[in-house]
Design brief:
The chain has twelve helices and 15 strands. It is α/β, with parallel strands linked by helices and about 350 residues long. The protein has two domains: about 240 residues, Aldolase class I (TIM Barrel, Alpha-Beta Barrel); about 60 residues, no CATH class. The strands form three sheets. The chain has a nine-stranded mixed sheet, sandwiched between helices. Helix 1 runs parallel beside helix 2 and helix 10 packs antiparallel against helix 12. The protein is globular, with a radius of gyration of 20 Å. The two termini are about 30 Å apart. Bound molecules: S-adenosylmethionine and iron/sulfur cluster (SF4). The site of S-adenosylmethionine has 16 residues, from strand 2, strand 4 and strand 5.
């Protein structure tokens, strides 16, 4: 089982970001950090969690590093007995707020993986994206994490902006691969509703050639691809757990949970969440929903899909794609080797 904790606070809002996070609600932070412990207790009971049943905890956001590390202590005290000894414990962090002291304290609490929102090492591109850090600050944060002995370090890059050229992306990658990291998440810029970028015609470069070359170069720099946006010598247990359809606890405002055939949706509003962190909507998934989701998730990643998962009709189409070398068949599982086509292939199989 996996656990996800959402921190819906940021120091500033980036021009492209539609995540559930706010830069003007700092006064609610302390109350929020108390309420997450109440929801955690509630979820552990609902999921009938056993001791040592959590294989991965992911603290995401928003910006987890806007919260003092000591404020996480009550949460860790509760979750520790339920976590496996070798659990992956990841926190996202912004280079700007992840000080050496914050990193050291989170490490002492059990964080063994940090994922930094770097986006680029190009100063102009960072300003264009509305980031509040410089390339130098990002380099320093990663160096601090390595010095501190964080086992697994990842960084996020964004590509597909109008500033991107082959040379700019190659330079981002050259710098990234010179650092003590073992994982890169590379996201194509998407124009999300209700963000300053949404209506702008001059911010995105959707060139498929640029995207394909960038992905190829990331792989050649020593970061094997294991999902459409994820690359690494270390494959995150948490990411893979999602694609394998494992159950997950979702703690915090808007943090979705999943148990067997149900999804739970706590309120996205921080105000409402701090009033009552236990109110949530439940969605019941049909066998058909789960069946289709498994196909989409399996084709987006190295997880693949067991052959017996497919219906007779689907199997015919899968076999056709295997003959056309668009899918690979190995030890009775089916794998996709071109993640850019994964949704298209999934739609074809499940039509
Ligand atoms: C939830 S954010 C948290 C990371 C952290 N707050 C930070 O930004 O430093 C995770 C990542 O999603 C990516 N992201 C968010 N919005 C995006 C968008 N519209 N297009 C592409 N990538 C996006 C960014 O790379 C970001 O680092
Ligand atoms: S990208 Fe990260 S820092 Fe920027 S607004 Fe989104 S969550 Fe906050």
């Amino acid at each position: 089982m996996l656990a996800y904790l959402h921190i819906p606070f940021c120091d500033s809002k980036c021009h492209y970001c539609a995540f559930n996070s706010y830069d003007n609600k700092s006064s609610l932070k302390q109350n929020y950090m108390q309420r997450i412990t109440e929801q955690l207790q509630f979820e552990l009971e609902k999921f009938a969690s056993q001791k040592k049943s959590i294989s991965s905890l992911f603290i995401g956001g928003g910006t987890p590093s806007t919260i003092p590390a000591s404020w996480y202590e009550p949460f860790f005290d509760i979750i520790k007995p339920y976590s496996q000894d070798d659990a992956e414990v990841t926190s996202e962090a912004n280079p700007h707020s992840a000080t050496h002291e914050w990193i050291a304290h989170m490490h002492a609490l059990g964080v063994n993986r940090l994922s930094f929102g770097v986006q680029s090492f190009n100063e102009k591109k960072l300003t264009f994206l509305g980031r509040n850090h410089t390339p130098k600050i990002a380099l320093q944060a990663i160096e601090n994490a390595a010095k501190e002995g964080i086992e697994n370090i990842s960084l996020d890059l964004i590509y597909g902006t109008t500033l991107d050229t082959e040379i700019l992306l190659q330079e981002d990658l050259r710098i990234a691969s010179s650092l003590p990291i073992n994982h890169i998440s590379a996201y194509a810029l998407t124009l999300e509703e209700e963000t300053p970028f949404y209506t702008r015609k001059d911010v995105a470069n959707g060139s498929e050639e640029l995207a394909r070359n960038f992905v190829k170069n990331i792989i050649e720099s020593g970061f094997p691809q294991y999902e459409i946006s994820n690359f690494g010598r270390y494959q995150s247990k948490h990411n893979k757990g999602y694609w394998e359809h494992q159950d997950y606890l979702g703690i915090g405002a808007g943090a979705v949970g999943f148990l067997h055939n149900r999804r739970f949706y706590p309120t996205k509003s921080i105000e409402a969440y701090t009033q009552n962190p236990l109110i949530q909507e439940t969605e019941l998934l049909s066998n058909e929903d789960l069946h289709i989701e498994k196909i989409f998730l399996g084709l987006r990643s190295v997880v693949g899909i067991p052959m017996e998962h497919f219906s007779v009709k689907e199997k015919e189409r899968v076999n056709l794609l295997i003959t056309e070398k668009k899918l690979i068949w190995h030890e009775n599982r089916v794998f996709n080797n071109d993640y850019f086509l994964s949704d298209e292939i999934a739609l074809f199989i499940t039509q």
